[in-house]
Amino acid sequence: MKKLLILLLLSSSFIVANIAIVKKTTGEVEIKRSGKVITIKKGSMLKNGDIIFTKSKSSIGVIFDDGTTLSLGEKAIFVIHQFKVKPSKKEYKVDLELKKGKAMFRSGKIGKLSPKSVKFRIPEGAIGIRGTKFVVEVK
Amino acid sequence: MKKYIHLSILAILSIGCSKTTVVLLDSGKPNSSIIVSTQKGSSKVDKIGSYVELKDSNKAPSAVKKMSPDELQNRFGKVISSAPKKPISYRLYFKKGSTELTDESKEIFKKALNSIKERSPCMVDIIGHTDTVGSDTINAKVSLKRSKYVKSLIEKTGLKTLSMKAKGYGENDLFVKTSDNVDEAKNRNVEIFIK
């Protein structure tokens, strides 16, 4: 039983790989990861399922695995549902969500390899991309 | 009774508050566009600086409008300036039939090392690419072998990164787009992708 548990833990940590790097922050930025709140700074890594919260007068800039860049302004809530760009296996799925605040998105390799696999959710619907850079504000 | 009035005001407020604006920016790539959709319809935004607004998932997006540079700066200037530097790629080429870098690529390799230092802390992918001659599976293997070799060259320098991965994309991410079975020297490279 114990062995099985360890095996499960090992395999789950393998699945939850790092999918983005935090390149800059100002003020206070936190993420919620499996129920825990963690403070984020330059050099932190993000994983699938992370929810990013920026506080007042705060911001964050990240680069995803494929070179996609994202920045968030103050008081934003952003969910990384899934970020999978694996050209070696031709597996592509990007599912992101801005719940509140302002964001800038610029697609990386995914914009060239499989733009249709990108879903950027907003409260009223979704944004699809064709090799693109955009800003969005959710009030 | 009072309770109900209170609730209805809250509901109106929350509807009034929900509003999303999406603006297309210049990505530097031609023919960029976004498709903004709700349950009731979708709008294509394909002109730089144009935008749509959304109020409800049960309403189609607004007509496409043009945002003035001043308004864009006022509303989005801060978030735009919070963006990180774009990642950078360096491409290395090998002498024909060997694992030795061309003289030009040796110089490019030095530049890549400098970039890794400058951008620290960073994630680095060493990505092998092939042309479209031969089978997918073999190309994937060959490209991974080359990328592992370049990774070992970087490791020898002792440079520190947060993560360094060797990957083989084979013919799935061509530098120069070609059809299948095309001998294209430019596509046989190892990319040092610095994030």
Oligomeric state of shown chains = heterodimer
CATH C-level category of chain A: Mainly Beta
How many domain modules of chain B?
2
Helix percent of chain A reads 10-25%
Average per-residue pLDDT of chain A, rounded, comes to: 92
> What is the CATH class designation of the largest domain in chain B?
Alpha Beta
Count of β-strands of chain B: 9
Helical content of chain B, roughly? 25-40%
Low-confidence stretches of chain B: 11-15
Please indicate the percent range of residues of chain B in DSSP E strands (runs of 2 or more). 25-35%
Q: Approximately what portion of the residues of chain A adopt beta-strand conformation? A: over 45%
The name of the CATH architecture of chain A is: Sandwich
Secondary-structure element pattern of chain B, one letter each? HEEEEEHEHEHEE
Give the number of DSSP strands of chain A. Answer: 12
What this model shows, in words?
The complex is a heterodimer of chains A (139) and B (195). Chain A is mainly β and 139 residues long. Chain A has a single domain, classed as Sandwich (Jelly Rolls). Chain A is 14% helix and 56% strand. Chain A has helices at 2-15, 109-113; strands at 18-26, 29-33, 36-39, 45-47, 51-54, 59-64, 69-72, 77-86, 91-106, 118-122, 125-130, 133-138. In chain A, strands 1, 2, 3, 4, 5, 6, 7, 8, 9, 10, 11 and 12 form a twelve-stranded mixed sheet that branches. Chain A is globular, with a radius of gyration of 15 Å. The termini of chain A are far apart. Chain B has four helices and nine strands; from the N terminus they run H-E-E-E-E-E-H-E-H-E-H-E-E. The longest helix of chain B is centred in the C-terminal third of the chain and has 21 residues, at 136-156. Chain B has helices at residues 2-17, 69-81, 103-118, 136-156, and strands spanning 20-25, 33-38, 41-45, 50-54, 65-66, 88-92, 123-129, 163-170, 189-194. Chain B is elongated. Chain B folds into two domains: 2-81, no CATH class; 88-194, OmpA-like domain (60s Ribosomal Protein L30, Chain: A), CATH 3.30.1330. With 195 residues, chain B is α+β, with helices and mostly antiparallel strands. In chain B, a hairpin with a 2-residue loop joins strand 2 (33-38) and strand 3 (41-45). At the A-B interface, strand 1, strand 6, strand 7, strand 9 and helix 2 of A face strand 1, strand 2, helix 2 and strand 8 of B.
